């Protein structure tokens, strides 16, 4: 049995108690910390941050598998108000990112607002307030900010016989550090972002790795390298240099949007670069064929790696070019009918991203839960506001992810947007017509893109509707401009089909 995060007990360091507060923020990862800083900047200090785990860090707290690192350049994967010159590498290891967030909390004195080991149990709109229940009591709040993340609950495949596997079995995001690795037979299921980082590390540690691949990924060179001490010293002494680097990396990311979104020439060039990378690192033609995607570039998340292909080409990793179908008498059976023995089974199978686990805990003014409201896929206004849920702000939720640039940029835009509305001291409501209009806008922008028409299954779209519900179909600058329009429409009380209050 693989427990979900909500089943893992965490010590309560600070209880919430009862009482009233202006804003409750749920989640202490990047989004929650960004929301807290934005509220501070807007002059609103009356907030608490609820975090169900025992520490801050979000996905960088939960993911501790060998090789875990960010696939966004480190100088860009940080809060704009807290540039950090001390990153050890161009792509920061996961532990460093967690330490970075802990440092921000300390520097900003957010400990006094933080309630660790305090899970949201229920939140409902009642008498123009949010009633927020935790294991420590019920609070009233004027505003509720959901910064729970989209990569919180592991997606576990329904495999016949999985419970009979005799060895250790766990999700990559719930790494079992007591599991044997050196010399062990380890089966990894999945070839997404986690597996591409994990598999080479397992091979380096002497494991006999079998990799179950349902669908190959488009992979481009990573170009990771350590930062020299002289570089870090220069950035610390001259912050403007670090700022220039961040802006350059931002511009590079924005330029990548075209290839991910289906621009014919940009996609052709990016696809050629990925195939060249594959040819250079995998000399065996049969293996190359098995590792070549048959869907449009950008349809799935494009991965970055310099060592995944060499690990497979070296023979230290056995590729099973089909999905894991089940377990029979302790043996792993592939969809191809091939059978494989293993001592450890790692499920690198992604997360429940399309249907957010927190949604069932939040009830709006019409008596419906957010999960019920999103029964056919997540919808919103400005990727942040939801009809029927006054004074609710969802960060990093519907259509707020990116496939080309740093997601932290989007979180900061949403946090600033939410803080500005909270500071206006008015009840924020959006109409059903406004939400329908924004949903049509997302559908129109995504029509014909690789995300919905690229011939693959991805986590960007909702399997219930086929709609693009996770990814923002545009650049970061376009998102910033769109949020500005939402604010203007709210301020002007523009009639439907835009926003009403």
TrEMBL record:
Q: Do you know which Gene3D superfamilies this protein is assigned to? A: FAD/NAD(P)-binding domain
One Pfam family this sequence matches: Pyr_redox_3
InterPro entries given for it? FAD-bind_Monooxygenase_sf, FAD/NAD-bd_sf
Q: Which GO terms describe its molecular function?
A: monooxygenase activity
Q: Is-annotated flag, keyword Coiled coil? A: no
- Which keywords does the record carry? Monooxygenase, Oxidoreductase
Q: Supply the name of the protein.
A: Monooxygenase
Which organism is this entry from? Microbacterium album
